[in-house]
Write a structure and sequence with these properties.
Blueprint lengths: L8 H25 L9 E4 H15 L18 E4 L14 H36 L1
Antiparallel strand pairs: 1-2
């Protein structure tokens, strides 16, 4: 039997996004926990690089029969873990900027809550469609 909910691209995207946001939350929390650890280097997920790769791939497929013109989200759902750059390295070698980390943590939490809201709306729509079909 075909699983229509599991095949829904929006739900799959939201689920994958929430997994990534949870992973980023863990990285940021680890950075905060190690703010005073000598030699610790702050880590984050590199979404920008993966998005750029996905856009390049999408542009190269434009006009190719059988390939859609839309950007595939699958290409950006596996970002690399990278060391944070652009922060001041303290004399002990630690580069955690607590203000940056708290700001990014707040932003990540808000994005996760937004994804939950979108998923809730989508599931309500599916529920309504099921009720109408019954």
């Amino acid at each position: 039997m075909i699983d229509p909910i599991g095949q829904d691209e929006t739900l799959r995207f939201l689920s994958a996004s929430m997994d990534l946001l949870a992973a980023r939350h863990s990285l940021l929390a680890g950075n905060i926990a190690n703010v005073d650890t000598p030699g610790y280097r702050a880590m984050d997920l590199d979404f920008g690089r993966e998005l750029e790769v996905a856009f390049r791939r999408q542009r190269s497929l434009e006009g190719v029969p059988g390939e859609g013109a839309s950007l595939s989200y699958r290409a950006v759902l596996r970002p690399r873990i990278v060391e944070v750059s652009g922060t001041t390295v303290k004399p002990d070698g630690n580069n955690v900027d607590i203000d940056r980390e708290l700001g990014q943590l707040s932003r990540t939490t808000a994005m996760f809550q937004q994804a939950i809201s979108f998923m809730s709306v989508k599931l309500r729509m599916l529920k309504a469609a099921i009720r109408e079909g019954a």
